[in-house]
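ARCHIVE CARD
SHELF: 3
SLOT: left
DATA:
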Amino acid sequence: MSLERFINQAVSSWMSNEGPHSEIVLSSRIRLARNLADYKFPSLLQPEKAAELTAKINESMQEKYDLELLTMEKLSTLQKRVLVEKHLISPYLSDASSYGAVLLSDTEDISIMINEEDHIRIQCLSPGLQLKETLKKASEIDDVIEAKLKYAFDEQRGYLTSCPTNVGTGLRASVMIHLPGLVLTQQMNRIIPAINQLGFVVRGIYGEGSEALGNIFQISNQLTLGKSEEDIVEDLLSIVHQIINHEESARESLSNMSSIHLEDKVFRSYGVLTNSRIIESKEAAQCLSDVRLGIDMGYIQNVSRCILNELMILTQPGFLQQYAGGTLRPEERDIRRAALIRERLKLEENC
């Protein structure tokens, strides 16, 4: 398969499109956790009940949405890993859910996980900073399911979930944000505790327990009880806008104080990406971050900023092995990663 065809098949809409504040915010995500009233939570669910529940949820959606049902037991380990790398399913659904499934839209902006930690996890993704629009989309899906199936709901506590931290709205709102300016000016260590004190959390690119590779951070709410969905989103938007302002100021400061050094850093990283024959994931992520910064600062003219979104996903172990058509050892993945990046950047320049 050619690289161009592979990218067209592999890249989700949120990776290849731009939205508001796309120079800093890569994507917005809304996730709603729900359970059905007449079923035990997934950890206690019997196989026949899990299958029955999956069928009901699938049926409730198909009248209005054209979604493809994928069951975890029918997917290979590599296929599930790719879905995790694309942020379409959680690691928990991939590894720990015996009877899990997912409903996916063609554009992969809608992902409904079934029998994960909760019966239903509605997830919607959008490019750029579009939390309100993404919440509206997720709420519409939520209404469609609730019109057909009875949720586990308490008048005082709200939506009941397996994990107490999700009780209430069941909402996780998050943005994936690129902050090289704040990292280079050593401000992130001060900003992260301030965000935590406001009831929000800063994580790596793949959520809890993951590393902030390539200066990409995920900011999301911690509290789901005591606030409406709209209030949670408004509060997160307020924080994100402040972070955007700080990042823009940090970039301007870097440009004013040491423009030639910043430009040198960008083009050295670009040189590594366009010429390396072997590259580890951490180095690749850092170089991609530098190049993305160079594109945003106007140093690099012939490359789209969406390239970071794409290559951060395409150079993950699952995707590399999918492109290679089989299992690869770590060093083979590093060789394949370098080749894919070179080919992708050459394809971009030719376009």
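SLOT: right
DATA:
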Amino acid sequence: MRVLGLGLAGAQKFCGLMDMPSFLSETTYTRILKSIYESVKTTVDVIFKKAVQEEVENTPNAAGDATSTLTISGDGSWRKRGYTSLFGVSTVVGYYSGKVLDLVVKNSYCKMCESWKNKLNDVEFEEWFETHENECSANHKGSAGKMEVDSIVEIFKRSIEKYNVQYRYYIGDGDSKTYTGVVNSHPYGDIEVIKKECIGHVQKRMGSRLRNLVKTSKQLGGKGKLTGKFIDKLAVYYGLAIRRHSDSVQDMHKAIWATFYHYSSTDANQRHENCPTGEESWCAYQRARRKKRLTSTTTIHFHQLF
């Protein structure tokens, strides 16, 4: 039931619908959950250590360092959409292995604290809270949006103690709050954490801004203009231009503007000078020119034989 995402109430309902005996009592159910949690936690710790070791081995020039420096990406998720969720989880993923290296679960709610909230001023509550404080499941104070920031910072701060590695390069999802929180926390003292942009999110923002532009400038939308399908195509080409020319700013700049010039060209005003050439070119005009040039060269060579 837990694998399916069902809790106690869901399991009780299922047993009733299937005409099965009543499900476990709440006390027994809670005891079993604690046992599952301890087992999973022990297993996860072992798996994460193996994943970190694999990431170190796959990272160039990292295996021989006393403290390896890794490139990771991080992101957070919540139990429900929006910024009102009481539960959130954040993970970091190794760039080269693609495996999860660490995670933190944040919780703003504790069921036991909720049941005692009407007795906050009682002496009985103070006695109970002394024993409960270290076991309280609520480990986050503040907004749900801040869960991701606090979680990623916590993951960075414990990387050396836990795995003897430093997350020196951080691939963010465009959320500057998380990166700013990491930088301000100084997890590695004077050593700077360098941010790298996720191309997928850059591509996504390109499409989002074009759609916002169409909303504010109605004359840009409509048939033959910036339709939703055409914006998706421009965003994909934008991402490909970045990915294929990540080693040269000049080539990247040329490839990005090639898309603009290509789609703004007309029969009277051809603007394909920046379009890629060769067999794999996506520009029909350039492919036609290449085919014409090859045909002409082949003809010349054929006549030279005689």
